[in-house]
């Protein structure tokens, strides 16, 4: 199974070599999160469309990024972004960010999951950033149950973030030093999918995962 999820939030016209490295790693990838403008943006972006097409041709699942604001964004606004991703970039899945973890918002996300399926997204990832209520495991293929710095992750107890049966767990770790074996650490904590990047600060996902290097 391919175990690397890549949320790389840089423009292909600005970072073409880095995107080429992502494409070259296609056999290793669980998927790539496409995020043109904190979502699909207000109009199609030709560079992102070409990038998405290249990834799909290489067999990579492309997930469209949509912020849900921990349930504060309306159903219609989120579905509009999902539909734009499908229409403009041919995404085969959705990466819903800032997803609530409690059962109180479960109905909202259940409806969003149904809408994503109806739009033609067979792969759905929910980024809770922490362990959610077990009910969410029935909604998605992938639950992000940790997003945070390596300094915190390395002290997380083994298996502490594994989801309920029905979805794979994913851990997104930033500020990772060279040589840190995040893949092994993720497996110990019940996650079969992960991403580890060296970047830190407000925009860590503007750096490539360890092990992906632009061609020289």
User: What percent of residues are in strands?
Assistant: 15-25%
Which CATH architecture would you pick?
Answer: Alpha-Beta Barrel
Mean pLDDT: 95
What characterizes the major β-sheet? 8 strands, parallel
Shape: globular
Unreliable sequence segments: none
The helix-and-strand class reads alpha/beta
What is the quaternary state of this protein?
single chain
What is the number of E strands? 8
CATH fold-level assignment: TIM Barrel
Radius of gyration: 16 Å
Question: What is the element string, with H for helices and E for strands?
Answer: EHEHEHEHEEHEHE
Question: What report would you give on this structure?
Answer:
By secondary structure, the chain is an alpha/beta fold. It has one domain (4-206): Aldolase class I (TIM Barrel). It is built from 6 helices and 8 strands, in the order βαβαβαβαββαβαβ. The chain has an 8-stranded parallel β-sheet with strand order 1-2-3-4-5-6-7-8. Helix 3 packs parallel to helix 4.
